[in-house]
Amino acid sequence: MARCLLLFVGFALVLSTTARELRGSETVWSGLVIAENVAQPQPIPPELTGIERPLKRLFGYNQFQVIGQSRKELQTGQEDWLATSKFFGLHVDAHGESRAGYVLNLKLYKEKELLLETDAKLSKRSPLLIKGPQVGGGQLLLVLVVQ
Amino acid sequence: MKTFEEKWTAWLDGQLSDRELAEFEASLSDKAAAKTEKAEAKKLGLLLKRELGPQSLLNAEFFNYQIRERIARLRKAPAWQAREPGSTWWTIRRLLWTGTASLALFLVMAVFIRRDQNPAEQSQYLTQILNARVDPVVSPNATISMFETNEDRVTVLWTEGLQSLPADYAAK
Fold it and tell me: What ipTM does the predicted assembly reach?
């Protein structure tokens, strides 16, 4: 009986420690997405399946293609990274972690020209969508998701 | 000065000194009757001593008596009252069971409370846009707005009037 109890307590401690460690390293997916309305839409990329409904509902397009992406595992919350396509670059600079999420500075470049800059607290439960410039018949979208 | 009754009692018990004995016996009117009474009193004393004296119990009888007493007490009193003084309800087994039950209860409560708190926690931690700006030279007519949709749990930075670009810019 006492042994069972000890085992149970040990198991609970291991679980809580593991959960804490897992929580310590989270991955932020950043993507440059071209949204378009086409007659034969391609299936949505797997990175966007979790937000397919709000993407379609908010922006009104039926096809979403990832033209640049980056997946960054955050250890300290102080990292920075770049998601690029042929002409666009999204620079993300993390400024620490809080209970609400990661504090990020985002800069969207068209080649070397800064188009847009924003600071945001990216929640671990809430993606960030940014409507960028019109590109041809479609729209450039920036997507950030904590995975 | 002793009274007659005191001297009588002392005479029966044989506790008079020689001089007192001689004086007391000389004062008796019927010495023979007094001696008979003394002999009977002595007999009575012996009888009482034999019959009413403290009875010594054997070990077996003593333990039987204790056990019978305890059984009677247990039958009379409820279990919680019949405990030995100094003993406690918290035996090792009960402590372990209580500990396990408390842990289980804690886990169940934690799960339920966490489930209840999730909606509030989620609304509290929607992504927040702190500020946003566009280059006024590149996009002089650009406007920025931001909103959150609680239904989809997304935060949107909505720009209008950014410089439009040709379709070539959609290249990977």
Answer: 0.82
